[in-house]
Amino acid sequence: MPDIKCIYDPLVELMNFYADKKAVTAQESAVSQLSLEDKLKRRIVDGDRIGIDNDLKKALNTYSPLQIINEILLDGMRVVGELFGSGQMQLPFVLQSAETMKTAVKYLEPLMERVEGMQKGVMVLATVKGDVHDIGKNLVDIILTNNGYKVINLGIKVPVEQIIEASGMNKADAIGMSGLLVKSTVIMKENLELMEQRGIKTPVVLGGAALTRKYVEQDLRRAYTGYLSYANDAFDGLRFMEDIKSGKADVQDLKRVVTSSSSLNKSLELNEVETRNRKSEANKQNLTAVISRSKVRRDVPVPNPPFWGSVVMEDLKLEKIWEYLNEVALIRGQWQFSKKGRKEDEYNNLLETEILPLLGRLKLRVKREKIFAPKVVYGYFPCQADGNDLILYRPKDEEELYGKWKSIRRKQATGDGREEAEPAPSASGLPLPASDLTEWVRFQFPRQTDERFLCISDFFRSTDSGEFDVIAVQAVTVGQRATQYTKELFEAGDYQDYLYLHGLSVETAEALAEYWHKIVRTELGIHEKDAAETKRLFAQGYQGSRYSFGYPACPNLEDQQKIFELLKPERISMTLTEEFQLVPEQSTTAIIVHHPDAKYFNIR
Amino acid sequence: MTGKELLSILRYKILVFDGATGTSLQNQASNPEDFGGEDLVGCNEYLNISCPSAPEKVHRSFLEAGVDVVETNSFGATSIVLSEYGLGDRAYEINRAAAEIACRTASGYTTADHLRYVAGSMGPTTKLPSLGHIEFDPMKEAYKEQAFGLIDGGVDLLIVETCQDLLQTKAALAAIQECFAEGRREVAVIVSITIETMGTMLMGTEMSAALTTIEPYDIVTVFGMNCATGPKEMEENIRYLCENSPKPVFVMPNAGLPENVGGKACYHLTPDELEFWMHRYVTEFGVSVIGGCCGTTPEHISRLVRIASAVDPGSIAAGGRSYDYTPSVSSIYSNVALHLDPPPVIVGERCNANGSKKFKELLLAEDYDGMVQLGKEQMKEGAHILDLCVAYVGRDEVRDMIEVMKRFNTQVALPLMIDSTEHRVIEEALKRYAGRAIVNSINMEDGEERMKKVLPLCKKYGAAVIALTIDETGMAKTRDKKFDVAKRIHDIAIGTYGMREEDLIYDTLTFTLGSGDEEFRKAGLETIEAIRMIKAAFPRSHTLLGVSNASFGLNQSARHVLNSVFLHYAVEAGLDLAIVNAQKIMPLYKIDERGREISRELIFDERKFETV
To answer: Are the beta carbons of A22 and B557 separated by less than 8 Å?
Structure first.
């Protein structure tokens, strides 16, 4: 039998072929081949904190804790800032990175010697007086804190005195003021003026939805001699601190003094323009004096409300409310998953695989842990227009107010009007003879100075007509626990959850307002024109309009007090701050107008 | 009525269930005396004892409307709910009374032309086991007591309804199976889940996941949905069921979405509207059993009777519905088919204390959350299913499995493969898993011994199972031997234990090609050919392979390439699932041509020889 000899063995061939080659695989190679420094940096960018302790431990063989933070991790944060700024990274992922940073700093902190200069700088940070919106301010806190700065976060509705005091006590390097309302920009200006009077020169950074760079750099810089800067986002706040600590701010400050002298002329020009504007304003005023009413129809039928006075609604079902949830506002607005820098299908994929499932889980959590307790007070009141004013009436007799009015309430508000309402007690639909009514609350609405000369009061029967009209008023809230819960998340460092839940709570309050507006329309029998698609309701796809104070057609926040007089929302644990802000934060109030021509409009 | 009898009835008629029991009862009994005292107001189930005329009147109202089936007044009559009224020890009595009242009333309406049936209602209780509110065993015991009472009281069938957590449903089904096993009369069972307005069950379960989980249960004859929304909102899910479910479809909507005004739920769907939607679902989609849930009155129900009576036997509704069911497994949230296109289904291998160093370290540190994290990472890496093994020398595997499963059940969205050699561990895991798991594994090392312990568990909890081609003589090496072992397992598992062909996943095992040992030169080829033979003989079954074994002993770079090429040829032969590290598998085009060719030669043993 002949011997058989193997002359080619694929096994030997394979072993030889790959003897020197490094494993090349799809993605794993990229990460495993990274240097330790890059791996740590990558962890910050990816927000990957599980197991970071091991990498940090290894890094400690080469670097001091402070070096790791300043030279490696902060570099990662810088990348995060750039990605965020260019729209390539969404806010929730930024927060994940911040949480990772925090984990790393927490690990390294006990190992650091308390040496001078370890702290990079101190900022006193506050949402200004009269404003409760703090999400932006808290983002600044997160980003600064996790980048080695100390932040004294004074919270919301902070009076300027407190800011000044905290700044002195903590030897702050900078002051940060934030606020969402238009009114807050005025408060910021007042604050700066007062600080100027006191000779304070601490650098100040301002941020907030209603602020613009132009307003800060042109108008507000005139009010304050200290270094003043505008922050478009939290990373601008970080750059601001870096500029201050590196001395760049001083240079810019100098530059600014130079430019401001040249802009002196400009501001003179500006004054002229302003004067001109004022003149034309005066003309308009005259015109308005003549035109005291728009051409709005006065003969539309007045609906019959199912009851007069106000009632409290509790134990509302969240699923029902969430049918009116504006997901676009939630996802792109509150959560800031913007489409910017993403292809359509990429964004849809993100939406399908991450964002919507996230929303589902979040809703479940809210329900399970009973985080929201939605409540409503609403009611219907007889009213008449008197020029620009709108008068709401009540029974002369105090007893009537809470006795008879309540009893007129129909047995069960059904929401679709199918169940018979109890007949109204008088032919005009009025709860009492007109002679038994007396003026209760008077709203004064502004009138447009051109275009259509609109004013909210025009949508109602006037005192001259002798007829009465009806207005609905509502106050809705998702409850105090939502505020408390989100605050705890923030304090525990769960920034991402904080952002998600805070956003959902704000939009749930909006959804509740939308939902209740629908019930009001149904009860008034004016729901025929309601858009079939919920989405279109957000664009006023219905008869009439819902106006909240602080918006163009009814700008006076002070009028919140009148709503409190009408509805007594204390019954659902709602209160009003000195600056007429609602507490809990996730609450809204509104007046509801039934007139078919009533829509949003601007007052110029 | 047995399941078979129910099926044969559904071949010629649409079965109509009754309407709202709870709301109707509130109208019958309103004062504390009816309820048997101030403390018991609101405990509708106690009316069976304190005021039997109330449930009887409700039954009558629906029987007069012409329904085929009335539900007993026992929705909340488990000891779990009753103990909230201090009636925990009277569950059997209350259920039995509920059944007797319904049977008595229904028989008064039964004629030769129109048989009336009674369904024993088993509600979801007030606890969610997946959230740890209650353990599986006590919940199962409570359901068992209820089922005993209902069956002894004479019901024709049982309906596990308004299910919110699949683990709760599984507890009820385990209870019913035990009742039958203990000699109680076997009756047909209907399972009906509740899809909330958000589009999933309360626990986040999608309809497809629920169907996947309940479908393997033989005792369940009819599957569907009830409550939470009106018929309109159910459309998408009804369509899904009718297109996919092998079991006849049950639909019982509310009278619209409840409007919660003034603290009271109001339902506004008119009988006309209900008739419109349900007519469509019956005639166009092929729904077989219909009824009304919250807010539906005898007037609503009479419309359903009208729909049923007008349906032409032999039409789509009377059994002619065609469906396409893909055997799948599922987590509590969503399902994964056992065959994907393109194949394979990737089974992540890293949550294994014997295979992954990282997982082992996490286990030893009892860092259970870290273990969850590793599971989630594998999802990101592209795994479709996760193998989970916590066996480690010197540790209490039962305890570890319980701790890990409690978390994996709700925190990992992928279906799990429960990997253990201990049947006790397997059962504790299955009891804590809401979805449909795969059990890893059975073999014939000790003859039928292991199948005897494991397959009844698979049946009881509806799991799929992996069968290794190992027999009394050890791991099968040749294709014929592998096929013979697979065939033996196939015959016994199906013949003796009632498994179905599609529930079985064969692992044809492979040996390393890296040793150069003459005995194993053809190991890869034999494995691949065995896959081909099994798929040809049992086309509905599935195959699986731990691919990386093929390259054991080689260096990392050679392993990645050989594994990838081997997987390619196995898939070509019909492999459905592969246990791999998803990140270490490359598509063929990414491998250099020479490496690819050498690997192919190695797998097919294309050595060249010369005669000396």
So the answer is: yes
Instruction: Select from B260, B514, B605 the Cβ nearest to the Cβ of A320.
Output: B260
Q: Within an 8 Å CB–CB cutoff, is residue B522 touching chain A? A: no
Q: Do A14 and B595 touch (CB under 8 A)?
A: yes
pTM: 0.57
- Distance CA(A87)–CA(A603), nearest Å, equals 34
Tally the domains of chain B. 2
Q: Please tell me what DSSP assigns to residue B284.
A: I
Asked if residue B348 and residue B241 are part of one domain, the reply reads: no
Burial class (CB in 10 A: 0-12, 13-18, 19+), A25: buried
Spatial neighbors of A185 by CB under 8 A, at least 6 apart, are: A179, A208, A210, A211, A215
Task: Based on the fold, state whether residues B217 and B360 are members of the same structural domain.
Answer: no
Q: Is residue B480 part of a domain?
A: yes
State how far residue A12 is from chain B, nearest Cα, in angstroms. 9
Q: Which two tokens stand for residue A317?
A: 């079902």
**Nearest CA to B564 among B539, B541, B540, B598?**
B598
Structural domain boundaries, residue B569 = 328-603
Asked if B555 lies within 8 A of A15 by C-beta distance, the reply is yes
Residues of chain A above pLDDT 70, percent: 80
Sort A135 into a burial class: Cβ within 10 Å, 0-12 / 13-18 / 19+. middle
Specify whether B234 is located in the same domain as B340. no
Are both B483 and B589 inside the same structural domain?
yes
Integer Cα distance of B273 and A188 in angstroms: 58
Residue at B272 is within a domain: no
CATH at residue B87: 3.20.20.330
Query: CATH number of the domain that B337 lies in?
Result: 3.20.20.20
Q: How far is CA B490 from CA B339, B526, B544, in A?
A: 19, 20, 15
ipTM > 0.90 for the complex: no
What six digits make up the tokens of B351?
């949550």
* Chain B environment of A323 (Cβ under 8 Å): 197
Spatial CA neighbour of B435 closest among B166, B198, B242, B204: B166
Q: Sheet containing A228-230: give its strands across.
A: A150-153, A122-127, A174-178, A204-207, A228-230
Across the range B594-603, mean pLDDT stands at 92
Q: Using one digit for the tens of pLDDT, what is the confidence trace for A25-60?
A: 434 444 566 788 888 988 888 878 778 888 999 999
Residue B292 maps to a domain:
no
H or E element in which residue A470 lies = strand A469-477
Q: Which helix (H) or strand (E) holds A546?
A: strand A545-547
Q: pLDDT digit string (tens) for A429-488?
A: 566 677 788 889 999 998 887 767 889 999 999 888 888 899 999 999 999 999 999 888
Q: Which of the residue ranges B247-251, B296-300, B339-343 would you say has the lowest mean pLDDT? A: B339-343
Q: At residue B161, what are phi and psi to the nearest 5 degrees? A: -125, 165
Q: What is the pLDDT of residues B101-125, one digit of tens each?
A: 999 999 999 998 899 999 999 999 8
Which among B249, B276, B306 is the end of a domain?
B249
**Does residue B234 share a domain with residue B369?**
no
Q: Is B259's Cβ below 8 Å from some Cβ in A?
A: yes
- Do B234 and B338 lie in one domain? The reply is no
Q: Is residue B317 part of a domain?
A: no
**B120, B78 contact by CB (below 8 A):** no
Boundary-marking domain end, from B199, B225, B249: B249
How far does chain B reach from its first CA to its final CA, in angstroms? 79
How far B455 CA sits from the closest chain A CA (Å)?
35
Give yes or no: residues B244 and B383 share one domain. no
C-alpha to C-alpha distance for A456 and A454, rounded to whole angstroms:
7
User: Per the CB < 8 Å rule, is B258 touching A14?
Assistant: no
Q: From the CA atom positions of chain B, what is the Rg in Å?
A: 27
Cβ burial of A295 (10 Å; 0-12, 13-18, 19+) is exposed
- Identify whether residues B362 and B236 lie together within a single domain: no
